[in-house]
Amino acid sequence: MSSTVLMVGTRKGLWVGRSDEARREWEWSGPHSDMEEVYSCLVDTRGGTPRLLVGASSSWLGPQVRISEDLGATWRDAEQAPRFPDDVDASVERVWQLAAGAQPSVVWAGTEPGAIFRSTDGGETYALERNLWDHPHRAEWGAGFGGQAFHTVLPHPEDPASVTAAISTGGVYRTTDDGASWHPRSQGISAIFLPEGQQFPPYGQCVHKVARHPSRPERLYVQNHGGVFRSDDEGGSYTSIADGLPSDFGFPMVVHPHEPDTIYTFPLGGGEGRYPVGARARVWCSRDAGDTWEELGAGQLPDSFYVGVMRDAMTVDDHATAGVYVGARNGSVWVSPDAGETWLCAVRDLPDVMCVRAAAV
């Protein structure tokens, strides 16, 4: 029987949870990277030994990528975290995203300010994707409330030369020539903060998260700042799939690991509150690619929940019966070991949760 590892990144360190395949009882270690902001983490199960990668940021030492090859028992710094070349007048503030590439040794990092770096040695060293950094649209990219960052990096599962990424506030971009050029793929996603008549620009949207399934890479699911969308042509066009949700505002978007038409999101009120509608914590699920939605967690998730769930604080594992995980800004992490049917609290009273990642190991 396989076991489960769950990484929980917070504003004050990382916690690592371990459970069996049942995922109902958890043992925890942490904090790792104590008092550092952890905005990204990765359970890399490629190869014979699973590796944990963490993007941590220290107020004194700056950002770093840390690696564990024994499921969190010991850690070491990567040889060189993402850093801008000497001729670039910028410094990396945070690593917002770590993603495994289509090739075994490739790891992608999305950063603040908005940049993407590529590692070809398993996450030890990183090189700037210079043609994206020098993109002519850069001058028009803004910064969302949380800062300007490439928070989504989606390597194509079959084509190493193709990567789709998203930035707040800038929209969705894609390369199909191994980074030689990057093109906007946002037409049809709304920018509700722009004047009427200008709310569907080719780029400049405040995209919160993009997800896709490896067996159907041409289909993208988007949680936007006002709007939930699906693309069936890898960003060439988008269709709204918000009907049936209590709100079209939120941060996370997650695809079931075995069912490409099953997706999960966590809607929030779009006003100043930024907590669930009615203060009821609920995961919303569609099993038909967004055509219809159902509410999950009634009677199990809290009914008095005045906190948000961030864009990377929701994830799934890859067990045969998939687990769904939700981390909240009140330091609680909720787990469904049966794809959303039942829920339990795996841990409480951690610092503000920024990211969660889980996998069968």
End-to-end separation in angstroms reads: 10 Å
CATH architecture: 7 Propeller
CATH class (first level) name: Mainly Beta
The oligomeric state of the chains shown is single chain
- Based on CA inertia axes, which overall geometry fits? globular
Structural class: mainly beta
GO biological process, one term: xyloglucan metabolic process
InterPro entries: WD40/YVTN_repeat-like_dom_sf, Xyloglucanase_GH74
Protein name: BNR/Asp-box repeat-containing protein
Q: What are the SSEs and their pairings?
A:
Layout: E1 3-10, E2 13-20, E3 27-32, E4 37-44, E5 51-58, E6 62-68, E7 76-77, E8 94-100, E9 107-112, E10 115-119, E11 127-128, H1 130-133, E12 149-155, E13 163-168, E14 171-175, E15 183-184, E16 207-213, E17 216-224, E18 228-231, E19 239-240, E20 249-255, E21 263-268, E22 283-286, E23 294-296, E24 314-316, E25 324-327, E26 333-336, E27 344-347, E28 353-360
Antiparallel strand pairs: 1-2, 1-28, 2-3, 4-5, 5-6, 6-7, 8-9, 9-10, 10-11, 12-13, 13-14, 14-15, 16-17, 17-18, 18-19, 20-21, 21-22, 22-23, 24-25, 25-26, 26-27
Structure notes:
This protein is an all-beta fold and 361 residues long. The protein has a single domain (3-360), classed as Methylamine Dehydrogenase, Chain H. Helix content is 1%, strand content 42%. The protein has one helix spanning 130-133; strands at 3-10, 13-20, 27-32, 37-44, 51-58, 62-68, 76-77, 94-100, 107-112, 115-119, 127-128, 149-155, 163-168, 171-175, 183-184, 207-213, 216-224, 228-231, 239-240, 249-255, 263-268, 283-286, 294-296, 314-316, 324-327, 333-336, 344-347, 353-360. The strands form seven sheets. It has a four-stranded antiparallel beta sheet with strand order 3-2-1-28, with no helix packed on it. A four-stranded antiparallel beta sheet has the order 4-5-6-7, with no helix packed on it. It has a four-stranded antiparallel beta sheet with strand order 8-9-10-11. It is globular. The termini are close together.
